[in-house]
Design a protein that fits this description.
Order of helices and strands: EEEEEHEHEHEEHHEHEH
Number of strands: 11
Structural class: alpha/beta
Shape: globular
Oligomer: single chain
Distance between the termini: 21 Å
Number of helices: 7
């Protein structure tokens, strides 16, 4: 197996990595979605982040590169900017090449749409996913228009997740507004098998399962 690392130095000096993997079976590309999803506002220098302005061109390159046959997306994120996360998820969902995701550690908040954006999704047994209503930090205008705006943003997320997974909108909304599970907040924390049981994620498995599934999707497409 031949692994070629492509390193990109981000603005704060941290290293973002995507990795083309070549072997005797199929050429796949490994994409990392780690840390916090950064949007239009730059995060503090000591915050590990995934930047959508770096990820989106990489996804286009993967789609257009004839030597790459499939995408494996590794996810371990606390969430972050909703619009940036949805932008990445929409591009992945619209790719013509086979795609597989695997949640490692956590796929929280806007990490949920990212996890289900691929053709098939895995989660390791110890990983967790936090599902909660759309929210924001800082000062907001306490008006009905603000509520309507958040409601529309949340509907975008719910619609995308239900469209790209097997969970129903009703079930997803019930998980979002559940009480008594998260201290001082509403929402639900799902462990690996629970995420599969509620049909949010396709299967529990590790890296070998994810790669094998990606190979099978590539072979079906050929």
């Amino acid at each position: 197996m031949e692994i070629e690392e492509t390193n990109q130095t981000s603005k704060n000096g941290m290293i973002e990595q995507t990795t083309p993997i070549k072997n005797a079976l199929h050429n796949i590309h490994c994409l990392n979605i780690f840390g916090q999803i950064e949007g239009h506002n730059i995060l503090p220098p000591n915050t590990k982040a995934t930047r959508y302005e770096e990820i989106l061109p990489t996804l286009i390159e993967i789609e257009e590169n004839k030597d790459i046959e499939g995408l494996l997306m590794l996810i371990n994120t606390v969430g972050g900017d909703v619009e940036a996360g949805l932008a990445i998820a929409e591009v992945v969902a619209s790719m013509s090449k086979p795609t597989v995701s695997i949640v490692l550690g956590g796929g929280h908040s806007i990490g949920v749409p990212l996890a289900v954006s691929t053709d098939y999704s895995f989660i390791v047994p110890s990983a967790t996913m936090t599902i909660h209503p759309i929210r924001t930090n800082g000062l907001v205008i306490g008006a009905i228009q603000t509520y309507e705006y958040f409601n529309k943003v949340q509907d975008r997320v719910v619609s995308f997740v239900s469209k790209n997974s097997k969970i129903t909108k009703r079930k997803l909304l019930n998980l979002m507004v559940a009480t008594g599970i998260i201290a001082n907040d509403v929402g639900t924390i799902l462990f690996g098998e629970e995420a599969v049981k509620c049909r949010l994620i396709d299967n529990v498995g590790g890296i070998s399962n994810a790669i094998s599934k990606l190979y099978s999707l590539i072979e079906e497409k050929i």
